[in-house]
């Protein structure tokens, strides 16, 4: 190895002598052979034993990047949709280090995966990251642990508990309405939008507002009060210690770099104080301190209520956390089925991550779609204005067909969560509803998958498949769900019924036992906020017609092309509704 020697002569001058130089060469050789074996294992052996080798899919281009660079360069999930068109509903592609990943948009395969959740856990790496970030809450627990947690938590999301938190949704929605109307009257710069309005975007009586930011404040306040009777006051106060701690923790937690990956895997390395770890620990100290205090307070209140003889359902906090603690304390829960205090604490963080940005993002995309399709906004407003009640009940608001259609259609077209990943927990055979042509030319009607294989579930591709939704699958048509307006044809309806989602024949809330626990909460929240806003203001695309692109991290959010430095945002023209 001639290229190594020129660098070695400096060693003697360090007093190490040629024995040390030999040692260095041996070390290099050893490292080299470890790398070579790792290469042989990862690239050649793993590929050779790949049980699903015959699945079709795009050619890899780079050993290192696989198809990852195409995936990152394209719009979220666009590559997956394109591959589904060229290779069939089930295919494989290449991730980092040439590792193989299966992707399936086949409803039969998806149904199998989602109904056998024990065989398809979240990947080990994802779980390690999430456990460090959230603790062992319901989003990350697997197997028996998960079932135990869901059993305690399910009652917290019952129809009655949604009814109980409706006033929180209305209070916060009305506060948001006042905040936006106030912003329109106030003409100081810099609060409403990260970038100043250009001349053509100034309109009498209206204002350019980054609606995403304010919807985010609103959903954060909602999850605080409805989740654990804690008011972040994001809409009314500039700063909150707990909100800041959560935000910092989540953004540090989402920075995946090589060191962070090593930290998750190599024992002991997790304790090394990198910048990322230090930020996470400092924020966690705050969230845990406040979280534990909230839990103690609620336990105390529930015990008090018991000793003073209050009835079980009486006024001792209707928030999710109180319900969870009460369910956990109930006499009919056996001790081994109970959640530990650490697990209860982990649910707080879990609800904060799973319930804040998802809901605000869904609302943001709804406003985007109704400004892109102004006739839908007019129709929606007409329906909402016709309601006499300022605060319709959950049943009444759910019964509004067009509001329901707008929300359903937006969640279908621009699903906040674009996809999710599972891993085969054991060797398993996945049945396919639609066979695909293998690389050897033979048709494949089931896929043999070995333990550890990674599987991507492309939520947005299924949501918008023409095969399932018809030729207008990519269009925003809220009336497609309404039987009285033509609705869907029978054949498509049957295709949709084959989608194993928990709600609405779409996978936006996923499906099976690991489906979103909060979907009824989210739907009620979104509808209330939209109902309140649409009755008092109008939303329009800016006259400068900025191009909006979709950026995916945990959820898919908008960004303005050309204003990347301003971060994620959705600026719209907001006008108070002329009172007639
Ligand atoms: C529009 C809003 C929402 C969307 C689109 C959404 C979507 C989803 C999706 C796709 C999953 C599956 C994630 C995966 O396994 O990879 C999920 C799980 C979950 N969601 Fe939601 N969610 C929303 C709102 C909420 C809210 C408001 C809450 C709580 C208050 C919540 C709590 C959860 C929890 C706890 C899980 C984990 C369930 C489990 O693994 O058993 N979500 N959600
Ligand atoms: C990487 O993936 C390709 C494509 O299937 C495969 O042919 C090849 O053997 C793998 N290994 C290497 C070293 O490229
Ligand atoms: C991945 O797949 C795409 C599309 O089929 C292909 O054009 C590309 O060369 C592949 N490789 C990379 C690195 O993306
Ligand atoms: C909640 O969501 C909003 C908007 O997406 C975001 O700005 C904020 O940082 C989130 N807060 C927390 C605590 O996650
Ligand atoms: C939001 C999103 O990812 N939408 C995608 C849905 O799927 C179609 C193809 O089926 C893509 O073109 C969209 O970008």
From TrEMBL:
Q: Does the keyword Transmembrane helix apply?
A: yes
Which sequence ranges are marked TM in the entry?
23-44
Q: In which pathway does it act?
A: Secondary metabolite biosynthesis
Recorded GO molecular functions are:
heme binding; iron ion binding; monooxygenase activity; oxidoreductase activity, acting on paired donors, with incorporation or reduction of molecular oxygen
Q: Organism's domain of life? A: Eukaryota
Gene3D superfamilies for this protein: Cytochrome P450
Q: Which residues bind heme?
A: 516
Listed A to Z, the keywords are: Heme, Iron, Membrane, Metal-binding, Monooxygenase, Oxidoreductase, Transmembrane, Transmembrane helix
Q: What cofactor does this protein call for?
A: heme
Checking PANTHER family in the record gives: CYTOCHROME P450, CYTOCHROME P450 12A4, MITOCHONDRIAL-RELATED
Q: Which family does it belong to?
A: Belongs to the cytochrome P450 family.
The protein's name: Cytochrome P450
Q: Which organism is it from?
A: Dioszegia hungarica
